[in-house]
Amino acid sequence: MSTTISLDVERLRQDFPILAREVKPGVPLVYLDSTATSQKPRSVIRAMDDFYQRSNANIHRGIHTLAEESTAYYESAREKVAEFIHSPSARQIVFTRNTTESINLVSYAWGRKYLNPGDTVILTEMEHHSNLVPWQLLAAEKNLKLEFIPVTPDGLLDLEVYDSLLRLQPRLVAFTHMSNVLGTINPAKEIIRLAHDFGAITLIDGAQSVPHFSVNVQDIDADFLAFSAHKMCGPTGIGVLYGKRNLLEDMPPFMGGGDMIKRVHLHSFSPNELPHKFEAGTPAIAEAIGLGSAIDYLTSVGMDQIAEYEHQIIEYVLERLEEIPGVEVFGPPSKYKGGVASFTLKGVHPHDVSQILDSEGVAIRAGHHCAMPLHEKFNLPATARASFYLYNTFSEVDQLVNAIYKVKTIFRV
Ligand code: 7TS
Asked: 195: which of 200, 234, 370, 392 fits an S-S bond (Cβ 3.0–4.6 Å)?
């Protein structure tokens, strides 16, 4: 076991009330499904609770104390997001419902304006359906060509093929920063630099990167970045789209309604300033405040410390899983990987693995993890996936391994 643990995980765990629960009497929860959604610290739950108990009012409207407080809290959450990802301004932070909506916003508002029949969009074979289906819908409507950066057998993007695809003069390169199945961390800065060399715009699906390591949109020169609060210790119901200012300025609104307008006449309207142009209707106010609080929490722990700890834990996970006869882990070596381990156990369906693990309190996910094409590529109907975050311990890895041995005993494999 590694000896250089940089986080006081036992202390951090006290911040997450749910981690103290038992799945059934005498069986404590071992939560290894943070890639689907993370758990929430007490400070986030309290921030949302306080808002409803003290300040609840709609924003950007009433001139009364509560409305002003709510607006200030909501906008201060936007400032925190901007700072967290090093956005040059909070105006470039659009609140959405989640990563999926952020990507759809770009495909509707930017894609419908700027992509034309015959244009090429480059994606990768490791995309979550939310960075695949919006482009398929647009491709069908606009007669676009979708090309895919292949995944190598060891779970990395084939950048040589990417280089040759760029010669097709794509208009957009949209890719995941970190795979939710393989755990692969893709070299975003290099992918973006090459795309820009060929005049393409880039969209990063940051659903799995922003929660786990420091992402600096200016350093990597991102054009669009999408992510969800619920995977980074924040609540469900709120996500973020970051965009370069000129791109957001030139995009038409995504949805029409209150708040996204400056003036409305019976036959016309003028859109509001950024970012309100893209936030029609009453937004998820308490959830934005929860996201701001989650950012405070992650920042207080330290994103570099979180990334380093997860790296140590995934090294240990791979070492332990690989010693179990019949277990095959997919994805690259730990050097290229975040805290995700998808695996199969020979002779047992992943759903059965997951069910027996659950009876031991170990929560993992089984299925295609919304990445069916990637599973098809590896000829797998499904995998079992254990994923790790700042609150997971090395001893939980041991509990995972012991539970897999129990599956082996039950299935005699
Ligand atoms: N992109 C990636 C890389 C993801 O992992 C997910 C969610 C999404 C986009 C969509 O995020 P949402 O918040 O809009 O739903 N991934 C998973 C998962 O792996 N298991 O459940 C959700």
From this structure: 200
